[in-house]
Amino acid sequence: MTAPDGQRWAIVGGGILGMTLALRLAQRGLSVSLIERSEQLGGLASAWRLGDVTWDRHYHVTLLSDRYTRSLLDELGLEHDMRWVPARTGFYTDGRLHSMSSALEYLLFPPLGPISKVRLAATILHASRLTDWRQLEKIPVEDWLRAWSGNRTFEKIWLPLLRAKLGEAYTRTSAAFIWATIQRMYAARRAGLKQELFGYLPGGYARTLDAVRRRLEEAGVHLFLGMTVAAVRKEQTGEICVELASGTRIRFDRVVMTVPAPIAARLCPGISDHEQTLLEQVEYQGIVCASLLLKKPLADYYITNVTDARFPFTAVIEMSALVDREQFGGNALVYLPRYLASDDPGFNLPDHEWGERAVEALSAMYPAFDPQDVLVFQVSRERHVCALPTLGASERVPQVRCSLPGIFFVNSSQIVNATLNVNETVRLAEESVDPLLSAAADQGTDSGPWQSPR
User: Average pLDDT in the 244-258 region?
Assistant: First the structure.
């Protein structure tokens, strides 16, 4: 198989990151190919069928302050169709469901006393005003939160939330994780907005991905879908050979790996031992996320944080509390996520066992819930979702230009000062284009590895 003529670039990985990079490089006049192992584009943002409904495999929303996502939507002619709504938050603790959607409800929140509430509010306010996140990278998140919020607030609030997102890896996580989470919460206020609204595009991310795909095709990007990459090697001719699992070999001048760092290490056997180790040592959290299509809604909270460690999920994301139920055929759509280490045996648990545990937990949380209301139950499993923000993580970020000229790494582990979300992924792609082109232009000079633009 012969790659297109001209300066030939390949992007390995067809998620939002790879799609955006491919589009921007093609718009610069380059010949670009996008290689994706799945039959569809989008990665973690891709959609699937739930009975008669097509919607996102995982839960996503856009915030008013997500300027990179909104700019892309505007470019695609979709931003004017966005629907913006306020969202309510619930908190399930000590066997009871509480609302945490307003300042008054926070003041009345039973699990915490007056002093604990003041300290929790002070913690959040302090973190929102901090600017030196690199100093926080040196402090364990537990130490920092206990110092600011107190032991009771840490045990009742922070610890369940940390375990929900990070598992036991929270013990190796830095305080920069909480800083980044709170910064996203306060983005609207810093932008001068009175309220942070949550937005969704009717049709879900499938509509966005379809629009990006059309732009890719219009820009001349060659799409190779359903093709698994087995290895990426530098040849003596100077070309980069992408070997597919089928045995097919495609040659390019430049290849950008957007897959998770440990996978990139496995696929690029010729890189230096130091780079190999650096990529392999990036720790990722995975997710098992169940989607339920229900006849009736559970409650009116978009997100309910769950602190009960016995439950198989760590939150209830009721998308239909945010999205008009007409998008789901009049039904309710609920996500039940559980974040796990990428090698956790929970990934091997059959769907029916996840389903039995989920139904039992929902029955305990919501007295009005009827298991007969479950129309569809499906489970998505992804072992590499987000790189863990461990202590000093930014000092170990994989570099983009590696020891093999012509091969580059751009992946979500390079998002070092924010939480992983679609907006930050698009931002990483946008900010990587010029440095990538610059590094490619002086390829062959002894200028050293190029650092992440973040």
Answer: 96
